Amino acid sequence: MAKYVNKEALAEVIYQELKISRKDAGHAVERIFQEMSLALASDGEVDISGFGKFIIFNRKERMGINPVTKERMKIQATKLPKFKPSQTLKNLCNKK
Questions:
Q1: Between the CA of residue 39 and those of 56, 62, 73, what are the distances in Å?
Q2: Domains and CATH numbers, the chain
Q3: Chain-wide mean pLDDT for the chain?
Q4: What is the pLDDT confidence band of residue 2, given thresholds at 50, 70 and 90?
Q5: How far apart are CA 58 and CA 52, in angstroms?
Q6: Count of CB atoms within 10 A of residue 22's CB?
Q7: What is the chain's percent helix, strand, coil content, to nearest 5?
Q8: What pTM does this model have?
Q9: CA–centroid distance for 81 within its chain
Q10: What tens digit of pLDDT does each residue of 19-35 get?
């Protein structure tokens, strides 16, 4: 079965490996994700060596179709995070 990782699972690993309290491990994980989110929200980048890079991608304004009314509509430009995995992560996923 594939391994499932979420914030709680990460905090548990930190708790076990670093021998700190579960509460402190949870705060550490939460703070890491908060800092990553703040960097991306300010059009920054998150580059984690050996894992990958998160960047902000600017999606242009475009025309779309409302699936209910079939009416053409303008979809506003948006910013969204994009992930580019490192070669190390790609190799690990492909067992190279």
A1: 10, 27, 32
A2: 1-42 (no CATH), 45-96 (4.10.520.10)
A3: 94
A4: confident
A5: 19
A6: 13
A7: 40, 30, 30
A8: 0.79
A9: 7
A10: 999 999 999 999 999 99
Q: Cα separation of 96 and 80, whole Å?
A: 31
Residue labelled with tokens 């303008």: 74
Q: How many Å apart are CA 14 and CA 96, to the nearest integer? A: 27
How far apart (Å, rounded) are the C-alpha atoms in residues 26 and 73? 44
Could you tell me which of 62, 66, 60 has the C-alpha nearest to residue 78?
A: 60
CA gap 37, 5 in Å, rounded: 18
Q: Which amino acid does the sequence have at 11? A: A
Q: Which contacts (CB < 8 Å, 24+ apart) does range 75-81 have?
A: 79/43, 80/56, 81/40, 81/54, 81/55, 81/56, 81/57
Distance CA 94, CA 87 (A): 10
Question: Residue 82 has what DSSP assignment?
Answer: E
